[in-house]
Structure formats: C-alpha cells, structure tokens
Write a structure and sequence with these properties.
Layout lengths: L32 H27 L1 H8 L3 H29 L1 H21 L3 H29 L3 H33 L3 H4 L1 H15 L13 H24 L4 H20 L16 H31 L4 H8 L1 H20 L2 H18 L8 H28 L6 H30 L4 H29 L3 H4 L6
Helix pairs in contact: 1-5, 1-6, 1-8, 2-3, 3-4, 3-5, 3-9, 3-16, 4-5, 4-8, 6-12, 6-13, 9-10, 9-16, 11-12, 11-15, 11-16, 11-17, 13-15, 14-15, 14-17, 16-17
Length: 492
C-alpha cells in the first residue's frame, strides 16, 4: 500500500512509480483526446488493482491464518513475499520498460499479476500462497513504471501531463480508501480467496484493451541492465526480511539468524562499493549526498512502515480480539482513509504556501500521538476512542505524502527526477515490508497463548515502535528543511 495525494499545480506530482529517465517520442499529436483518456483509464486500472490488493490482503489476514493454520510469521510472509519483490524490482522494471517497450512490459506485468492472483486464490497451503504472491510481486513491479511511462509519453504537454498524473495519483488514494471495505465484503461473503478473484476480470480486460488501444514506446537510449546490482538488492532485502520474521521462532542469537543478518549487511556493503564503478548503476548513491533527498526516502520508509504496521495490528485486533467480522473491521477502519483523503490536498496547499516543514511536523505529531494512544488499547476500548485514534492516524498518513514527494524531487537535479522517483517508490515498498516484518516479529516474540488472550500485551511494544517511527518523521522533516540541508542540493 502506498500513501497518495492529488497533484496540485504548485507541488511536484507525487509520482509513486517509475521514472522517466530519458527523452520520449511524444505520440500526443497522433492520438485523439478520447483515446488518450481511455489509455489513461487502462493504466489507472492497473494501479488501482495493485493498490487495492495490498489493503485487501491485510484485511483478509486473520481469515487466511485460520484457513491455512499459520502463525504470525506466516501472515508476515504473505505480505513480505509480495512487497520485497516489488521493492527489489521497481527500478529494474522501469529500465526494462524504457529499453524493451512500455506496452510490452505493461502487458507482461498484467499477465503475471493476473496469473498470480488466480493461483493465489487456489493456493492449497501457505507455502504455495507465498510463492504465488512472489509471482504477483514480479508482475506488480512492471505495472507502475511501464504505465507511468506510457502516460508521460502520450501526455507530453506539461499541463495535460500534470492533470493525467493527478488522476493517476487520485486513483491510488481511492484504492487505499476502498481496500478495507472491499476486503471486508469479499472475505465476509466468499472467503479470503475472493480477495484475489477480484483482480482477475480487471487484469484480463486490461490485457485485451492494452493490445487494442495502447501505443508502444521506448526510450531513445535504454539504460543498460545491472544484473549484479539487482542480485545484491534482492539478497540484501530478502535476507533482512528472513532474519526479522524468523527471529522470534528461531532465536535472535541463533547461528542461522545471525548468518542472514550478516548476509544482508555484506550485500549492502558490496552494493555500495560496486555501484559507483558503473556508468549506469541501478542505484546512484551520489543522490544521497543531498540531505532533503536522503531524508525524504528515510521518511518514506518510516511513514509507510508505520502505516503497514498499523493496518497489520489493527486488523488482528478488530477481528481476533474484538471478534468483528471482516466487513465490520473494514467499516471501523474507515476514519483512517477518510481523513487521509481530506488531509492530502490540504498538505499540498500548506506546502505551496509555506514549504514542507509544517506538513512534516503535523504528520509526525499525528502519527506519534495516535500510535502512542493505541498502545493503551483494551478489549473494551470504546468506539469514540477508535474513531479519534484512527482518524488522527489518517491525518498523519495523509499529510506526509506531499512533502515526501517534494523532498525527493527538489533534492536532486531535474535531469535525475525520474530515477529519483523510482528510488522513492522502492523506499515506500521497503517501508511496507519492514513495517509488517518488524511489528509482526515483535508481536510473535511477545505473544503468550492464543491471539485472543495475549494480543494486547504482545502488541504493546509494536505500537511504541510505530510511535518512534512517527517521531522520526517529525525530526527528519525539521532537519531536512534547514538552510544547511538545502545547501547540500546540487542544481545539476
């Protein structure tokens, strides 16, 4: 799941997927307005499908756990198997779309995501479900970068492009808002397998319409593949996730967990040493000399980790502790996405008038206060308490997105904006992976007895970890907007 906001004229679009690192041949003049609108709708349908999948699956986790008889770690892998692959392959998929052709990669991504969804709905065991989620992640990593490249190519006029990306970003927010309700309806009516069935007709229709209506395009000069860098990123994130998720069951000091932590650190060190030697690296570490850019990416990790952890714990609390149905849980969660939708455009207006510091501070304070308050949850917490804390969390989650995107785009030269936005998309997916992995592992390590009996005490530390992440958002927002931070940005 990603935090999204409508684009404003004064703010850099909150591009959550891939990049436009090279010059495109515009086809705007060759396509009529009606066909361009249809192409935009096709691309947005793919984004909606991927975004909806994240929140729907989280709402369905308790049902998946009961059906497949899995512990907390199994639920973590159901999310991590998808998000880690997505985070690892986003930049690679963007480069592949530029080099091979955006329509081609988009169709492949649609096909893999749809196939993965169908197979997930048939999964006979947890292991197969995780494997099919990985396949979904591979397909999902191709959709956003290719779709955004298609949109950028056919809407070449700046004004038209801004409007198109505004629609794109609004669809992402809509998918977030509808996820809990859609998940509740599907899980409550046809079971957890229905959450994957929903993707199949959309995916098949999008594949057919893409072949008929979407023009192909590619960059004049595609970026060379970086297989070594890509391998190191996968090893780094995969090893880290394994160590965090399996730590509670195998022992944090066990040789196996220590080895996986060591492998992750070694892969990162090797990546940092290897990438600067390449003319076209997968990750250009020179970007991180810019304090606003680095802080924006760290903020994205912290904010999205908090959001993912919030949804993970809240879903388990409402269904396993309070005994709500999936639909009741989705309805109870509604204050969060509603306040996200309200606060996102407000954040853009505040930023346009006075800069990003105020939205960052509001976001950090709201995330910190809401999660700290939620650490006091009981089995009898009243609806007013839930309404206030969930709504306050939604304000924080909605406020943070625009300043993150602004920090990413303003923290690097304009010529590098495409790759920078791709790296930020990966940071968001990494945050989701870490949020579920860390909070879930803390829960699993502290859980005594059944979820119904031991959840509240076991989840206490997880809420405070999220409060710490929220406070980090506040601190990073203040630091990244100082005069010193701005002086670290290169103009070109």
């Amino acid at each position: 799941m990603t935090v999204s906001t409508p684009v404003t004229a004064e703010v850099v679009p909150a591009v959550q997927s891939q990049p436009e690192p090279y010059t495109y041949h515009s086809q705007q003049a060759a396509l009529g307005g009606g066909r361009r609108t249809i192409v935009l709708a096709i691309c947005c349908s793919a984004l909606f499908m991927v975004g909806l999948d994240n929140t729907i699956v989280i709402v369905g986790l308790p049902s998946i756990g009961a059906s497949l008889h899995t512990a907390v770690s199994g639920l973590q892998w159901t999310i991590a198997g998808y998000t880690i692959v997505l985070a690892s392959l986003l930049i690679f998929s963007g480069a592949a779309a530029d080099r091979i052709g955006r329509r081609t990669i988009f169709q492949v991504g649609l096909s893999l995501f749809t196939l993965g969804s169908w197979l997930c709905s048939l999964a006979p065991s947890l292991a197969w479900l995780i494997a099919f989620r990985v396949l979904q992640g591979v397909g999902g990593s191709m959709l956003a970068p290719a779709a955004l490249g298609i949109i950028t190519n056919i809407f070449s006029a700046p004004k038209d492009r801004a409007k198109a990306i505004g629609v794109w970003d609004g669809v992402s927010g809509l998918s977030m808002a509808l996820g809990p309700i859609a998940g509740g309806i599907l899980v409550g009516s046809v079971g957890w397998r229905g959450i994957f069935w929903a993707n199949i007709p959309v995916g098949l229709a999008a594949v057919a319409l893409t072949a008929l209506l979407v023009p192909d395009s590619r960059a004049e000069r595609g970026r060379k593949a970086d297989p070594v860098g890509q391998f190191l990123v996968i090893v780094m994130l995969g090893s880290l996730a394994y160590a965090i998720i399996q730590g509670p069951s195998e022992g944090w000091l066990s040789p196996r967990i220590a080895i996986f932590f060591l492998v992750s650190v070694t892969a990162l060190a090797t990546l940092v040493k290897y990438e600067p030697r390449r003319a076209e690296p997968l990750i250009d570490f020179r970007f991180f000399r810019s304090v606003p850019f680095t802080a924006a990416n760290l903020t994205a990790v912290c904010a999205i980790a908090t959001l993912a952890g919030f949804l993970f714990l809240t879903t388990l609390y409402l269904q396993d502790v309070r005994g709500y149905t999936a639909l009741q849980a989705g309805l109870t969660l509604l204050p969060m996405p509603i306040m996200m939708a309200v606060s996102s455009p407000l954040s853009g207006r505040i930023l346009a008038r006075g800069g990003p510091r105020v939205p960052f501070v509001i976001a950090g304070a709201a995330l910190t206060l809401s999660t700290a308050a939620l650490s006091q949850l009981s089995a009898y917490s009243g609806p007013l308490f839930l309404l206030i804390t969930y709504g306050l969390f939604g304000i924080g989650a909605g406020m943070v997105n625009v300043p993150i995107s602004n920090g990413v785009m303003s923290g690097v030269p304009k010529s590098q904006a495409g790759m920078a936005s791709g790296m930020n998309s990966s940071s968001r997916q990494l945050g989701q992976s870490l949020g579920v992995a860390i909070v879930g592992s803390v829960l699993a390590a502290s859980l005594r007895g059944s979820m119904h009996v031991g959840f509240l005490n076991a989840a206490h530390a997880g809420w405070w970890i999220m409060a710490g992440c929220g406070y980090s958002v506040l601190v990073l927002g203040v630091v990244s907007t100082t005069s010193w931070a701005k002086s670290t940005v290169r103009s070109e």
